[in-house]
Amino acid sequence: MSGLGEMDELYEAIILDHYRSPRNTAPVEGADVDLEVNNPFCGDEFHIQLKVEDDAVSEVGITGRGCAISQASASLLAELVKGKSTDQVHDAVDSIRRLLKGEEITDEEADVLGDIEALGGVRKFPVRVKCALLSWVGLDDALTEHLSK
Predict the structure, then answer these.
(1) How confident is the model at residue 1 (pLDDT cuts 50, 70, 90)?
(2) The pTM is what?
(3) Do residues 117 and 10 touch, judged by C-beta distance below 8 A?
(4) By the 8 A CB rule, do 136 and 113 touch?
């Protein structure tokens, strides 16, 4: 894309890498959380599976189809949540929601999000924010439901 700054080009490269080579796509045997999420307006859909042990995500598998933003976001999510406590996952979802709304996040939150900050540029295109959030919101809701059992 012409006219992009150096950081925009880096963020675009991160998104394209995760779109082309999504992480953690293998099915999770005996998943504690197993859900389907979709956005009927654009056709994005994901199958998200988690294994939760000792209040932490020990395994994650996400497969699906959709636009580059939704695919990259799901892949980035899968990388982030593996090994994290359920509280850390909820905090990360809150941070990404605020990032995509254009709200400030702390330096500590930015450190936790790492490459996920690349999705921050999506806020320039409000119609695409739902694409970026689909897997995050679905996972957060499913994890909350799992913990309430």
Answers:
(1) very low
(2) 0.90
(3) no
(4) no
